[in-house]
Amino acid sequence: MKVITFPGQGTPVALNVFRSYLAERSSAFRAVFWDRGRIDVARTIEQRPADPASIAACSFLLFDLYRRSPKGSAEEILFLGHSLGELGCLGAGNRLFGLPETMEIAHLRNELMVNAAGGRKFELWAISAPRSENLERELQPWLRVADASLANVNSRVQCVVTVPQDPTADRKTTPQWAADLALQVPRCRIQRLENPYNIPFHNREILQSIEEPLLDFMWQKLKSQGLHTSRELEHPIISNLNGKRITGVEEALESFAKSSCNIVNFVACCDTLKSLGVSKAVHIGPGGVIGKLMRRNCKLEKSQEWDAIEDVVKEIGELHASSPLE
């Protein structure tokens, strides 16, 4: 069994890599990136590579390219996205949303989160502790007293938190809360992550109001495509919310809406993959962050990045004569 992953909003499109896709003139690349209806999408990605709509669009296009290759066509597949990546599971993976709808949903989700913050700005920090057996548990006493919120449980030794931005602080110095935490958690490493929209990612206290409008918008998009009566997914999705394997359309939409304002439990997702006997993975770009997280959490027989032009061209060339994945 194979899992196909999609990255989240923290992985902007690398323009040098994206432009290498546009420069590739093989028939598969032309069909995906130079389709008449997609030229404006490529321009949008080049103009705003860190925008969530651009990230979701890049993933959509790369998976379209993967779908046109027959790699693993005989294998059972399922999908796992990280945060925004769950939208890739719904749209590109299960064909519930086309490319324009996927971009619109990504844009609305981002806009809803920015508005929910009410003008407040937040920073995103990764916390790693290589010797920890369960960092999430170790952080709980600190989280109860700190002005911080857990956003992602990426592995048993790495979590991501959001903290309010201090406008008077020097970005080059270590915040006091980080210095205090380093004393509590042995060999703790704390790193600031990019957060261009200053969003309090996955903070339920602030973001719970986005769930219903996001869910309503997705149902509207399904109806506009004539897909609102769909009941079963083409391929299961592993939910960020609780690691559960989902097969129904309604539950999958609710999972994405809920996980957008709740903690991403990536460890639970990987535990589910192990319990299902998943042995292979393909990590759709942009970037390779999810592949690294998967390697920390799962022992897979084979793991492939679908991002660098050299790797993609090689796979397309090897598999050009076979039938497409359906």
Automatic annotation (TrEMBL):
Keyword terms, alphabetized: Acyltransferase, Transferase
Chemical reaction(s) catalysed: holo-[ACP] + malonyl-CoA = malonyl-[ACP] + CoA
Coiled-coil portions: none
InterPro entries: Ac_transferase_dom_sf (IPR001227), Acyl_transferase_dom (IPR014043), Acyl_Trfase/lysoPLipase (IPR016035), Mal-CoA-ACP_Trans/PKS_FabD (IPR050858)
Class of the enzyme per the UniProt entry, highest EC level: transferase
Known EC number: 2.3.1.39
Gene Ontology molecular-function annotations: [acyl-carrier-protein] S-malonyltransferase activity
GO cellular component, one term: mitochondrion
Residue ranges of domain Malonyl-CoA:ACP transacylase (MAT) in the record: 5-316
GO biological process per UniProt: fatty acid biosynthetic process
Name of the protein described by the UniProt record: [acyl-carrier-protein] S-malonyltransferase
Lineage of the organism: Eukaryota, Fungi, Dikarya, Ascomycota, Saccharomycotina
